[in-house]
Amino acid sequence: MGQALSNLDPPLLQVDGLTKHFPIKSALGRTVGTVKAVNGVSFQLSKGETFGLVGESGCGKSTLGRTLLRLIEPTAGKALYEGIDLFALGKRELNRYRQHMQMVFQDPYTSMDPRKRIGYTLEEPLKIHSIGNQAERTDKALSLLRKVGFSEEHYDRFPHEFSGGQRQRIGIARAIALGPQLIVCDEPVSALDVSIQSQVINLLEEVQQELGVSYLFIAHDLSVVRHIADRIGVMYLGEMVEQAPTDELFHRPLHPYTQSLLAAVPIPDPRAKRERIELQGEPPSPLHPPKGCVFHPRCPYAMAVCREAEPQKTTVSAGHEVQCHLYE
């Protein structure tokens, strides 16, 4: 886990009401519906901290990460990076801030140009931001390769000559080339074998300890998130239903959805027993989210108020927030 700064220090990143809606167009170009991919999400990230983001596929995790870096434009909300609203920046100002914010993608192969050698891939961010001359950029690329466990001979190889785990290490090298303070890791180990996952996670932790970067770590594997994250946020159908320090979330999950996720995590001991919470049905469509609490159609504790009113965020202890009528 990262070494977050004191709570008295201002956060590196403060996200308030982040919203991303995708309009659905008819054949005539008229808007006939809206997919509410991310709906009013708020959280903060301290310097040197890892904030894990978990939830089922389709809950809006990756959309949130991409919107945060403005790879796709937000619909509403604010993202204050050291007090500067990233969503209010023009293109030229945003390009300057991109040096401080990078991304590690889920599939490292499709995020690289298969026609370009690895050396070019690592030098490209430096060239875009006019950092150094060609010789200096080459030296930096070789240094990055060594940092992630490669030798100079890999400089001239193509992406297809590497395994999935090796390509992901190259993706991490590219992400740290500009010395960023924030890296969004979008399911960086979900496509890798378990043994390779641990190598990539260890590399991310080494980078964090050496460079002091902050991670927004998106994943669906709770065991991986528990290992690397200082705090965890749980998303369901575009909303952040609970967030808490990692240890507290695992020992005291409050939202029924969080409880169901933790109950589904395999236990290594075959003799151990655990109460299972089985959810009914499939997640609703973000095109037509339920009225009231978005989780109520699948919640075993749903009440009448859950079907009518949207729950408000409730703080139950220091750093532990839940959006559920059971705790209002």
Describe this structure in words.
This protein is an alpha/beta fold and 328 residues long. The protein is 28% helix and 23% strand. It contains 9 helices and 12 strands. The strands form 2 sheets. An 8-stranded mixed β-sheet has the order 6-7-8-3-9-10-12-11, with helices on both faces. The model has no long low-confidence stretch (mean pLDDT 91).
Number of separate helices? 9
Based on secondary structure, the structural category is alpha/beta
Radius of gyration of CA atoms, rounded to a whole number: 21 Å
Low-pLDDT runs: none
Which overall shape is indicated by the principal axes computed on the Cα atoms?
globular
The proportion of residues in beta strands is 15-25%
Q: Please provide the count of β strands.
A: 12
Main sheet specs: 8 strands, mixed
The level of helicity is: 25-40%
Task: List strands and helices in order, with pairings.
Layout: E1 13-25, E2 31-45, E3 50-54, H1 61-68, E4 76-81, E5 84-85, H2 91-97, E6 101-104, H3 118-128, H4 134-147, H5 164-175, E7 182-186, H6 194-211, E8 214-218, H7 222-228, E9 231-236, E10 239-245, H8 246-251, H9 256-263, E11 313-317, E12 320-323
Parallel strand pairs: 3-8, 3-9, 6-7, 7-8
Antiparallel strand pairs: 1-2, 1-4, 4-5, 9-10, 10-12, 11-12
Helix pairs in contact: 3-4, 5-6
Output the keywords:
single chain; 328 residues; alpha/beta; eight-stranded mixed sheet; four-stranded antiparallel sheet; 9 helices
